[in-house]
Every structure is written in C-alpha cells, then in structure tokens.
Amino acid sequence: MFLEPSSHTILLVDDDRDFRDAFADLLRLDGHVVVEASTGEAALAQLDNIGMRRRGAPDLIVLDLMMPRMSGIELLQRLRRSGRWADLPVLVVTGVNDPMLPVRLDLPIAFKTDTETLVSAVRQQLRRASSEAASISAVAAASNGAE
After folding, report:
1. Phi, psi (deg, nearest 5) at residue 99
2. Which CATH number, 3.40.50.2000, 1.10.443.10, 2.60.40.770, 3.40.50.2300, labels domain 9-145?
3. pTM for the whole structure
C-alpha cells in the first residue's frame, strides 16, 4: 500500500478526531510530516505559526468541508484571499457524496470511505504540486537567463 515515501508536510484539517488520528497515522506511515488541526480556526493558527517562524508552507492541505463554526469552504475562501496562502494545494476530503462538488469548488475531492484511495489522492496531489512548482522554477530560470 505504501510505496512512495517522501518528506512532504501535510496540514490535515478535520473535526472528526477518529478519522483525523487514523488518517494522520497512515500519512506518517507513508513518510509524511503531518500537522493536525481540528477546526478551521486551528488551521489558520497553525499557518500563522508557520509564518511567524518563517518556515515553508505545507506542501498540501487536506481539508474536510463539514466542520462546526468555520466550515472547510470558509477556510478555503480565507486562504484564497490571503497573499501568502492563496496558492497552497488543497485536497478536499468529505463524507458527502455530491458529484458536483469538484465542479463547484474547482478542486480535487476524495471521499472518506476508502483510506487507500485517500492516500493515493494525497500522493497524486503532491506529485501535481511538485510538477507545477518545477515548471514555475524552470520558467523563472529561463526568464533570468534571458536578461
């Protein structure tokens, strides 16, 4: 099941403690560093702590949509409006089986029912984010060389 170890940092945001604990353990077994948050507010606080320490951003946010007080959608909106966190890759996890969610959110969605599929979705998002970052770096390097 776990074939591609890495050292990516994942911010896992979910109010369901049992799910969060179990999924965080699976991600750690897969070689990731996992920072956990049980609410949208706690996720923002984690990101603020990262910002104050001048550490790099998480490589991926795994975000539940249905949370009390601040929903995953509200957290996502706040992130997209922020200057620092607007481009963070996000994988939405949910127990709600709504086929229109990926269209409405314009984000990848994974359903909580199958942990192997969730781990695969995390790997896919991390590969996509790494590929996009490499492309941006290549374009920047080419631009600097053309000056």
Report:
1. -65, -15
2. 3.40.50.2300
3. 0.81
